[in-house]
Amino acid sequence: MEFLWHFVCVGFIVLFLVFPTWLYMQFVEWRARRILDESAKAGRLIPVTITPLIDERLCMGSATCVRACPENVLGIVDGQAVLINTASCIGHGVCVPACPVDAVELVFGSEERGVDIPDVGGDFQTNVPGMYVAGELGGMGLIANAVEQGVQAMHNAAADLTPNPDRWDVVIIGAGPAGIGAALVAIQKGLRYLLVDQDDFGGAIRKYPRKKLVFIRPIDFPGYGKVKFTSLQKEDLVAILEDIINKTGIEISTDERVKEVIPLDDGFQINTIHQTLHATKVVLAIGRAGTPRTLGAPGEDQDKVAYWLKDPEQFEYEHLLVVGGGDSAVEAALALGEQPGNKVFLSYRKANFTRPKKKNVEKLRKAVKKGEVQLVLESKVTEIGVDRVVLKQYDDEIVLPNDYCFVFAGGILPTEFLRKAGITIKRHHGKKIIDV
């Protein structure tokens, strides 16, 4: 009788606990394999910039990294964590601390695609002593990460700083999230700082389209407190940044484009379009959006060509060309396609969209089906005229009527600016790094 009772208990555990768990794990792995196959076919296994690198020798398949990732980049296949949607990684980094055996780290680029990054150490200091890099310029474009890097960079910059009344303690270049984070720490530490920006505060955020939904994770702003939102419209995020600036007393010198930073024996000389500054330390938080990648096509210097779209609602009954294959290009085409009377063409050099979020690709398919956007894939802009654009697709030349052209080809590293400052540029291919 006792044996029968034990048999019943074991059977109960197997039937109602072990078997459902095993069944669920099989479903999770099946789903991961399906996403992996879809990503492979769509070309989404190549990282855009940053990606997790999993040490197969250490990974125990706990799936804590999978559950932590908000972008569904990781999955469990054959009992081990693998990348199933690499192109979606935007560098949240939460997978790294989530792993109980330290089997995950974030790296830039891959064997197939290198990413150029300034030579920056763990303290965010470049190879030029006293000059620090934070935010998108260092490869981390996520808003929360940029703020945290700005905070850490300033803490490190202030650690061994000796004040000099004849110069600024630190000049922060760029008033985006990283620059604001750095300025908040400078205020807390009582430093003589100057925050400059070629435009206004907010950086690339201000160039987002109206009402664009921005996904963030909770951010702790020193001297202000924690912003706990996980998604905000662009206008709300700008309003929060403005509130932080007003309440903490951050002072910003706007419309102050920096031409060059010159290392000196005892600090730095910063030449702007208006003045010459001297500082003991420099924090570069300029990002890449300020240096858009151009097409190199004749006629690109016209006023009708822009590299961002702030207000799609001002365009109606126009012939419009959007160039690019990332989220910004797709979102711009969708927004313009919704406006009355517009004829919107989206040109992309590849045959498929591999970089945008899956939901944006789905929206684009619906817009194409409704006739709101027309795709011109595997094409290249060869000429931009006053009232037309010329594209080459395969061996054919396509001429489209055009009133405005929007180019979303990404930002490029301000290599010449950095090299003049003495900063070494390194090309990252996953773990392999070479000087360029």
Explain the overall architecture:
The protein is α/β, with parallel strands linked by helices. It has 9 helices and 26 strands. The protein has helices at residues 2-42, 64-68, 95-98, 143-159, 177-188, 234-248, 327-337, 358-370, 415-420; strands spanning 50-54, 74-77, 80-83, 104-108, 115-118, 131-133, 168-173, 193-196, 213-215, 219-221, 225-227, 231-233, 252-253, 258-264, 267-272, 276-284, 305-306, 319-323, 343-348, 373-377, 379-384, 388-393, 396-401, 404-407, 425-429, 432-435. The strands form 8 sheets. Strands 6, 7, 8, 13, 14, 15 and 16 form a 7-stranded mixed sheet that branches. A 5-stranded parallel sheet has the order 17-24-18-19-20. Helix 4 (143-159) packs parallel to helix 5 and helix 7 packs parallel to helix 8 (358-370). The radius of gyration is 25 Å and the shape is globular. 38% of the residues are buried. The model has no long low-confidence stretch (mean pLDDT 89).
Task: Classify the helix fraction into a percent range.
Answer: 25-40%
Instruction: Report the principal-axis shape.
Output: globular
Strand residues, percent: 25-35%
> Residue-averaged pLDDT, rounded?
89
How many β strands by DSSP? 26
Give a short synopsis of this structure.
By secondary structure, the chain is α/β, with parallel strands linked by helices. The protein has 9 helices and 26 strands.
